[in-house]
């Protein structure tokens, strides 16, 4: 819309300039004058896509009839778009050639035209007003836009840096809290398990204590990895790979050692799937067995891994607890986080209470 208005303004102003020049209306018919003004207005309305047609129309109209509005607008766009230096100098050189042509035409026609374009002072004043000053104005507007854009980009970069700094500080605070609270408590568990193993009166108690110590040390290693991510998130290459389905048997053995009769069932033809899918499947089994320990105790559990043609299904079904059990403390966000993890891969997670009192955790993950 803005360029349509610009075209209309250039058309009206060009027509006004043509009508006001002495000798022009008598020498040229009115349709020709209107056509010249219309060509100037049409070229000005096209300036958003390309201002070169406007410059060409302006050069012809100025040299032939001293119609300056299209050349004035073209000079502004030249300063606005051309690189300062060789390109802008070439444009101004072309303007000098147009002024020379206008001088020759004015000397040939004589009268007021000769006075306007052939006298040195008048020609210089017209050139400054129509070509040089608009080009300088366009170059200034361009420079100002670049300064504003640079300032905006700098402000955005500073905002991103402040946000990154705030996130880094928050990660460091969380890491300190986890180290001071969680790591300390787990270390105490490992130490007490080691002491119990040394003082155990029978082999079964010693094995149980050794298993508790091993699980605690593994938890400390995993916690150390998490703290490393929180403190230095860009040094991922130094961390051990997260567990996958290849580590599932070790997880099941740990649950069996704690008294849960875990049975694994593999269905379908086992095949390699994406690492993210394997990690998520492992976490599904891990969280489900953790909930069995917390809420059901020493009951049987079935772990089923089913390889479908386009998805991997994981089911963990446990039996009903034999007696009411004092539940261990927890944050209550395990299944919520697990559901988010599964849904991020385009899968679904279903949890339900079984008729016999057991519980089912089922996940379907595209693979």
UniProtKB/TrEMBL annotation:
Keywords: ATP-binding, Kinase, Membrane, Nucleotide-binding, Phosphoprotein, Transferase, Transmembrane, Transmembrane helix, Two-component regulatory system. The chain crosses the membrane at residues 30-47, 54-77, 89-108, 120-141. Its EC number is 2.7.13.3. It catalyses: ATP + protein L-histidine = ADP + protein N-phospho-L-histidine. GO terms for molecular function: kinase activity. Gene3D superfamilies: 1.20.5.1930, Histidine kinase-like ATPase, C-terminal domain. Residues 170-234 form the Signal transduction histidine kinase subgroup 3 dimerisation and phosphoacceptor domain. Pfam families: HATPase_c, HisKA_3. Residues 278-366 form the Histidine kinase/HSP90-like ATPase domain. PANTHER family: NITRATE/NITRITE SENSOR PROTEIN NARX-RELATED, NITRATE_NITRITE SENSOR PROTEIN NARQ. This is histidine kinase.
